[in-house]
Every structure is written in C-alpha cells, then in structure tokens.
# Entry
Amino acid sequence: MMSGVPARRFPAPWTVEAIPGGFRVIDSNGIALAYVYSRDDLAEKTIGGAHLTSDEARRIASNIARLPELLVKGR
# Structure
C-alpha cells in the first residue's frame, strides 16, 4: 500500500442479497453499498413508468458486486 493512501473502506468480497422488491449489495463487513429495485407486476410498471424486472435488477447488482475483482484485474 502506498504511503498516505487510506485502507479500503469497503472490503471484498461484495455479495448480493435478495430483499423485498429488489437486491442489496453488501461488503464483507455487512455494510450495504447499493440497492437495486425491481418490479415484475405489469400493472405497477405502467403506473410509474419503466422499471427493472427482477432478473435485470439481479444482473445489475451482481455486476456491481464484481467491481472489486475487476479493479484488481485492471491493475
């Protein structure tokens, strides 16, 4: 680690948890880093405009959770 650079605040691995209405990305300390919400009910979609399906939300949350490993590979 370089001098003066703080330690990583959100340690890997990051994982995805299903929550009501979407998914949560958490770090290894259990800190929530991102929430990705979804709606699969077509009636709810038309009320508020475009929404993510649960499959789309899961894929986005999974890609967010992969960021630490992608950043290490990019070095």
The radius of gyration is 16 Å.
